[in-house]
Amino acid sequence: MAAREEAALEARYREAAAAGDPGAASLLGAMLLRRGDLADAEPHLRRACGAGLRAAANNLAVLLHRRGHREEAAHWWREAAVAGSAPAAHALGLHLRDHGDESGAEYWLHFAAEHGHTLGAYALADLLEHRRDVRAERWFRIAAEAGHREGSYRLARMREAAGDRETAETWYRTAAARSHSRAALRLGVLLEERGEREEAARWYRQAAQNGEPRAACALGFLLRDSGDPEAAAEWWREAAEGGDGNAANALGALHANRGETALAEHWYRAALDAGDHNGAFNLGLLCAAAGRERQAEQWYRRAAYAGHREACNALAVLLLQHGDPSGAAPWFSKAAEAGSVDAAFNLGILYAGRGEQHEAQEWYARAAAEGHGEAALQLAVAKERRGDLGAAVHRYRQAAQGGSAEGAFRLGSLLDRQGDADDEAEHWYAVAAEAGHGRAQVRMGVRAAARGATDAAEGWYRRAAEGGSRSAAFNLGLLLAREGAEAEATLWYTRAADAGHGRAALRLALIAARRGELTQARNWCLRAAEYGPAEVAERAGRLLEALNTELSA
């Protein structure tokens, strides 16, 4: 039915056009143009143009443009635009823009936009944004309000860049609802940052299904973090096959963690092929973990020369380990200047090893300013050695807050010695002790024992002793002996003495002497005298004299 009606309509247009009706010629030419019959359409459109019909001029320009006659097309678009055609003004504006006439392009695109042409408004906004003209936002908004989805997306990006996330989200939603994949991706990112992970996943999935690899990658990370690594891997694989290097790296890491090095290497190489230099860095890590240091160095170099800051730092560490500090220094510097906190700290160590303390302190300070706890610790130790205890406390506190267990212990110890912040001192001892710091655990045990909290003291001593602290082993022995558990106490004294603890050896000598095991007592006395300290050696000497007398008798 539609085909018969169209054929009848065409016949009427042809008859009228043959009778000299320019309007019919214009309509016939437009019908033939839509059908793709350019050769038949052109004479009818030219006849209508001769009568001054602007719609025919615009359509003729479209026809000529399709045939590659761009300059003549521009002539007819100008004719139609001057006659008031907004579509022609839009087309002419694009033509002028593409030929470098931005002022002419702006004039005609503005004309089209002012006459309600949505594509004209968008193209004008695009041109103005390219020139960093603040008027761009107004025209993106007009295009967006007229339903232009790319205009909605671009407006959202502008509002997000300006810090107006609420408005940005509104326009991302508008564009995403019209299946704009990048808008759905950005909407997902905003929602995930806000903690609305379920809705974020929905928009990531929509964008991924519309062919956006970055959304598939983001969805993979969301699924991994929710405890579903298998589903994550599926989306990462889809993203990686779509050219997303980040997803390929994620797949590589997944397989590396499973010990599947061949698959890990495959995906790291895929990441590198996609232009992601994290792939080279990760290949370096993979080779280093397998003991293939020469290959690791090659991959680190490749990533480092591409500007990968962590690869610069890793390469420098490797060179330093191989005894090449002069080769390491520039790579540490490059990484540090690019923002690597670890590299700044490593530079501090490098300069300190050379005796260049001023330079070392500068790099430590840079790393500490970025929250590097061990760098702050180095600064604190230097301050304490100089007697600047106020500055030392500040730096120790910074180190402790940056995760340094040694910093927390030293802060507690310094506050303890100052004697005016006992509660805070114990707090920092506890922080260090919970992080596995042996001396802090012993200190917590001593404090608990002094309060009569025997169970707590025993718990801290055990943790420290099991971690290898001989002082903790000795203190645990004393505590158990006071509680009547002498057999277990002896075991801990023995562990402490075997680790060189003089008091523990003396205690074992006394126990052996009391049991009448004089030879064993003599042996422990000799070890106690060897281990010290001085007062222990003196007591061990007196006991040894008594034992020798007894043994002689």
Textual characterization of the structure:
By secondary structure, this protein is mainly α. It has a domain at 510-552. The chain is 82% helix and 0% strand. It has 34 helices and no strands. It starts with a helix and ends with a helix.
* Number of helical segments with 4 or more residues: 34
**How many strand segments?**
0
Determine the structural class based on helices, strands and strand pairing. Answer: mainly alpha
Largest sheet: none
Give the helix level as a range of percent.
Answer: over 70%
Our estimate of the beta-strand percent is: under 5%
Please state the CA-atom Rg, rounded to the nearest Å: 40 Å
Overall shape: it is elongated
Low-confidence stretches: none
Q: Could you report the average pLDDT, rounded to the nearest whole number?
A: 95
What does this entry show, briefly?
With 553 residues, the protein is an all-alpha fold. It has 34 helices and no strands. The longest helix is centred in the C-terminal third of the chain and has 19 residues.
Secondary-structure blueprint:
Blueprint: H1 2-18, H2 22-35, H3 38-50, H4 54-66, H5 70-82, H6 86-98, H7 102-114, H8 118-130, H9 136-145, H10 149-161, H11 165-177, H12 181-193, H13 197-209, H14 213-225, H15 229-241, H16 245-257, H17 261-273, H18 278-289, H19 293-305, H20 309-321, H21 325-337, H22 341-353, H23 357-369, H24 373-385, H25 389-401, H26 405-418, H27 422-434, H28 438-450, H29 454-466, H30 470-482, H31 486-498, H32 502-514, H33 518-531, H34 534-552
